[in-house]
Amino acid sequence: MLDLVLAIIHHVLVFALFGVLFAELMLVRPGVDLPTMARVGRIDLMYGAVAGLIVLVGFSRAAFAAKGWLYYSHNLFFHLKIATFVVIGLLSVPPTIAYIRWRRAGLAPTDAQVAGARRWLWAELVLFAPLLAFAAAMARGYGELPVR
Rounded to an integer, what distance in angstroms lies between the CA atom of residue 76 and that of residue 113? Predict the structure, then answer.
């Protein structure tokens, strides 16, 4: 039962992360005003919290659920999935820094600044496709590495 509960929570969180990121992309657009940027800042905090929960639940699932740590630690697609998640996290840093700067300056971002932030957001969203592909391959036993 623990395996099922952790799997459901993990999947809901991943889809929530995608939704939160998509909300940021929809709000950060040319002509965005300061009140909207304040909302984006709160959404970005939610993004960080959900990402942290994904890591917590995901590693709990790998360690305590049905397949166990040995299955995951010896799977190429598990490592690719984690690496992709880390890259998505790193790509989220520049927009977060931009939101903080814009809020502190008390000025709405220029269209060029918005375009720059949107490039980072799009890169994050695009990486969800391989992330999900790696998860599906891993769950089906592809990428098993020899145990040493």
Answer: 38
